[in-house]
Amino acid sequence: MRPPKKLAQACNGRPFNFLTESVGDTATTAHIFGGCHMGISAENGVISTNHELFGYPGIYVTDGSAISANIGANPSLIITAMAERAMSLFPDRTL
Ligand SMILES: Cc1cc2nc3c(=O)[nH]c(=O)nc-3n(C[C@H](O)[C@H](O)[C@H](O)COP(=O)(O)OP(=O)(O)OC[C@H]3O[C@@H](n4cnc5c(N)ncnc54)[C@H](O)[C@@H]3O)c2cc1C
Question: What is the pTM of this model?
Fold first, then answer.
């Protein structure tokens, strides 16, 4: 019996997989990141440390594309934390 089936049997679970992986031999992930990674300057990043797009003042990126690399864990809380930090950097105009 193949390891996934053995593991499923051991923990009374059901093994399943994405069709693209089992038939297409193509790794699949629901955790898509990157594309607008953070940097010190436009030389090494797309956004600055306050999430502003280099060269486009006033445009901010605060979604999963701001995460530079796979964090190896469920990402929603990290995306939320980074977005909250980015928003906390805006001056509080209510004061
Ligand atoms: C099946 C599945 C299971 C997952 N399970 C987990 C989990 O258990 N734990 C976890 O932490 N993460 C999980 N993730 C990953 C997590 O959902 C994503 O990493 C996270 O939602 C990404 O956040 P985001 O803000 O980058 O994009 P999204 O959450 O995708 O938000 C993008 C938003 O932009 C909107 N939008 C798109 N185009 C436009 C447009 N042109 N104009 C206006 N709005 C637009 C969309 O409708 C959407 O609301 C899972 C993902 C999937 C697909």
Answer: 0.82
